[in-house]
Backbone:
């Protein structure tokens, strides 16, 4: 997967640090702000995905899919995107909620700069399968959480 100049940061989540409780499932799951920089000029759209590979499920747990984002540097306007499905059976952001005593889980927030727009609101795996060839660049921010 290509990695060059694209950077994903957050004023709410420090890389490889514990995610604050206000963004977690049992505390209201406030949606964290995400900031992107270094978007390639040829990008026509951004997609954002949050995934927990440590969840006790065969494919981990998808917490957030967001499509149709304008390829603009700066804070991502979550309201301007299309909220896709999460693995909790809904759409939009669902906060960390790992099993008690399961240890630290890693939450990968991925931003993808795409060469073509995403059609509809695919689940994470369907998106990666259908649009893997359209990823110009990708970047990630990883936070941790445990209960």
Residues:
């Amino acid at each position: 997967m290509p990695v060059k100049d694209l950077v994903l940061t957050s004023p709410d989540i420090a890389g490889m640090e514990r995610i604050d409780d206000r963004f977690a499932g049992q505390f209201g799951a406030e949606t964290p702000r995400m900031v992107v920089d270094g978007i390639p000029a040829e990008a026509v759209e951004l997609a954002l995905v949050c995934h927990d590979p440590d969840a006790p499920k065969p494919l981990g747990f998808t917490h957030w899919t967001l499509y149709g984002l304008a390829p603009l540097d700066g804070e991502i306007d979550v309201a301007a995107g299309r909220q896709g499905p999460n693995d909790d059976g809904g759409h939009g952001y669902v906060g960390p909620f790992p099993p008690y005593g399961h240890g630290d889980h890693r939450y990968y927030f991925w931003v993808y700069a795409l060469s073509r727009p995403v059609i509809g609101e695919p689940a994470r795996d369907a998106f990666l399968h259908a649009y893997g060839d359209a990823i110009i660049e990708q970047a990630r921010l990883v936070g941790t959480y445990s209960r």
Remarks:
- The first helix runs from residue 124 to 131.
